[in-house]
Design goal:
Strand order of the largest sheet: 5-12-11-10
Distance between the termini: 58 Å
Number of helices: 30
Radius of gyration: 29 Å
Shape: elongated
Largest sheet: 4 strands, mixed
């Protein structure tokens, strides 16, 4: 962002922009590599830090190390690092949504650097603990600022592969740390109280290098245009397009997709809580389960990895690094090799599969460990295989959190779920495992392995049940910005009309009556569909006259490609029915109203009122295989509000009256009356 932009207070207004579409259609180039190197390499530092504390844990328990900690204190030091990460994620995540991504990812890296240097000069347990807390705060802030920035700068078609590989680069740091730990912990080279201090100093040097590269990474254009810097965002994207075109030699085609948003300076914590808890409750459950499961598994096992090797397999503290190396390589190989399948096969099957497989393998390994059938080599091999899958799943968990919530809340959402999952699973994990290891009994430690396995398997099942398919979709399609919702409401006004009688419905009235209800509560799942190849005559004779629904999703193979209305078909001359096909009269999926299954029902109610066919295709977990009709929503509104708008067979007089006997009318014939929009039935529910 330019100095002028920062100095002047932006004028907030409603704008229409193509920036998201322009960023997502860019071919891969050197500019994208600069973003990946400048932002993604910080996870190498995190891996280095965690590996160092894990590898040096046995040394810190020895006399002459300068600290002489117990195994439990080492575990609590790991918990302090994670506690700092939780606090840092929450505070800096909140700032990243208010002040921008770039300011925060520079500040948080500087804090990380300072904490690493101060840790190297630790002279007591409490100093060491406080320094770990500070270092953790820096890395926690990185999680929220970096993940949000990366996803907003990387094209949608490769977001999964890139994000997983970046998060997986954590294990490059782990591998480097494990190799470095061998000479640094060798008392023939460095004194017992010197080598581990140098390890933290090396981390600080790497942070300085990354800080230098990071200066060239720009602010997120998506953040800029929402916060009033749309002119600067346009200039930035134009410059990015110029660099990409010069690098690739490709001529960029102008996108045809725009987004209309109402700019806002900031968003309150109350609004964020409302988004997380009421607007997207299912996504909240998914993210909490994914982050909690992986946080417990990783932090519990990895922070105490060296202690298990030394206490149960009697591996020398100076040799622990050689055992961590294959473990780290397995963890990096998982996201690297499996990452592309998260973009092709999809998020849901891959996340669920990697979580469940790793949980089952961990449970089996725990049983073998309890029975004494493993040694240091086979234990390391088993963990390497387990975490090949777990690492890909865990990386995708952070990707999921950054994808499925609106842009204005993205950094804070990442921070919240990271902090909650880490606090629940990560902080408790090292402390629990430290105590279990101190018992010296394999049967006791097995309890920790079993708990980690159950959490991972449960998270995988929840992903299958409630997960959102986000592969290849624009961020604004997965979760529309709150500012886009504001712009839509501003454009549409405070009321809308229903049915042929054009009854006026106040937006506030609809919101009050339908509060807490989602599209998924009313939509028709797996409705009757018709093939686009079917002739109009066959459609009327074989489908409509037998089913009597008034609108049908149109399919080609297994894919929904549009929506056809019987009323519009009947407008055709009868002599053309045999010549034309359903596809000739359908509304394409691109031109139809498409609503997410988790959208508030009140918003869908208003949107349906502005369509001609009074139907919407529903995106349910990324698939268009559900349908929503005005009739169904209006009937729910009437039942909950007590307001008669004619959809339950009333007279549209504004309120329901006591039932009066009607001569010659039975319950079945009364139920067949035409609703206020002139339709007698909906696909999935006949009147």
């Amino acid at each position: 962002m330019s100095a002028t932009a920062e100095a002047a207070e932006p004028q907030l207004r409603t704008i229409e922009t193509q920036i998201p579409a322009r960023m997502d259609r860019l071919p891969w180039s050197r500019w994208h590599w600069m973003v990946v190197i400048g932002l993604g390499t910080v996870w190498i530092l995190d891996g280095l830090q965690v590996t160092i504390i894990g590898a040096i844990a046995p040394r810190l328990t020895e006399h002459g190390s300068g600290l002489t900690l117990t195994a439990a204190k080492v575990g609590f030091a790991g918990s302090a690092y994670l506690a700092g990460a939780c606090l840092g994620a929450l505070y800096f995540g909140w700032l990243a949504d208010r002040l921008g991504r770039k300011k925060l990812f520079m500040i948080t890296l500087a804090i990380f650097l300072a904490g690493s240097v101060l840790t190297a000069f630790s002279f007591s347990y409490w100093w060491f603990l406080l320094c770990r807390l500070l270092t953790g705060a820096g890395i926690g802030g990185e999680y929220s600022a970096i993940n949000s920035a990366i996803d907003e700068l990387i094209p949608a078609r490769v977001r999964g592969q890139v994000d997983l590989t970046i998060n997986g680069s954590y294990w490059i740091g782990t591998a480097v740390g494990s190799v470095l730990s061998v000479p640094l912990l060798d008392t023939n080279i460095f004194a017992a109280n010197v080598g581990w201090r140098l390890a933290f100093g090396i981390g600080a040097i790497l942070a300085l290098i990354i800080l230098f590269v990071r200066r060239n990474v720009p602010e997120s254009p998506r953040w800029m245009f929402i916060h009033g810097y749309d002119k600067e965002a346009e200039e930035l994207v134009a410059d990015i397009e110029r660099q990409v075109s010069e690098d690739t030699g490709q001529v960029l085609i102008d996108p045809d997709r725009t987004i209309r948003i109402k700019q806002r300076k900031s968003i309150s914590l109350l609004t964020i809580a409302k988004v997380v808890l009421t607007l997207y409750p299912r996504r909240t459950i998914v993210c909490l389960s994914l982050l909690t499961g992986q946080a417990f598994l990783y932090n519990a096992i990895f922070f105490t990895y060296a202690l298990v090797l030394t206490k149960f397999y009697h591996v020398g503290s100076g040799s622990v690094g050689w055992y961590i190396l294959p473990f780290a390589l397995g963890n990096f190989a998982g996201p690297l090799l499996l990452g592309r399948w998260f973009d092709t096969l999809g998020r849901k099957p891959m996340i669920a599969g990697t979580y469940i497989i790793s949980g089952v393998l961990l449970l089996g390994t725990g049983i073998l460990f309890q029975q004494g059938q493993l040694n240091a080599f086979t234990q390391t091999f088993a963990w390497s295989v387990i975490f090949f899958f777990a690492s890909a799943g865990a990386s995708a968990a952070y990707l999921t959190v950054s994808e499925v919530f609106p842009m204005e809340t993205r950094a804070m959402a990442i921070a919240f779920f990271y902090a909650f999952g880490t606090a629940l699973g990560g902080i408790s994990g090292p402390a629990i495992f430290g105590g279990l290891i101190q018992s010296g009994k394999p049967s006791v430690l097995f309890i920790g392995f079993a708990l980690g396995a159950v959490l991972m398997i449960a998270a995988g099942i929840i992903e299958l049940w409630l997960g959102i398919e986000a592969a290849g979709r624009e961020l604004e399609d997965i979760a529309p910005p709150l500012s886009a919702r504001d712009a839509d409401m501003e454009e549409e006004g405070d009321d809308f009309t229903l049915g042929r009688s054009q009854r006026i419905i106040r937006t506030t009235r609809a919101e009050a009556a339908l509060a807490g209800r989602r599209v998924a509560d009313v939509m028709v799942r797996d409705p009757v569909t018709v093939s686009g190849d079917m002739s109009i005559r066959d459609f009327i004779d074989d489908v409509f006259l037998s089913r009597r629904y008034t609108a049908y999703p149109v399919t080609e193979g297994d894919e929904v490609v549009g929506l056809v209305s019987v009323r519009e078909v009947l407008e055709l001359p009868r002599e053309q029915w045999g010549e034309l096909h359903v596809r000739d009269r359908m509304h394409s999926a691109e031109s139809s109203l498409v609503i997410d299954s988790e959208s508030p029902l009140s918003e869908a109610f208003r949107d349906l009122a502005h369509t001609d066919v009074h139907r919407a295709l529903v995106s349910d977990h990324g698939r268009l295989h559900s349908l929503l009709s005005m009739t169904d929503v209006a009937r729910v509104f009437e039942a909950l509000s007590g307001e008669d708008v004619g959809y339950l067979g009333g007279t549209s007089r504004g309120g329901f009256e006591a039932a009066q006997p009607m001569a010659g009318v039975t319950a079945s014939t009364a139920g067949a009356q035409t609703s206020a929009d002139g339709e007698s039935s909906t696909n999935g529910e006949k009147s």
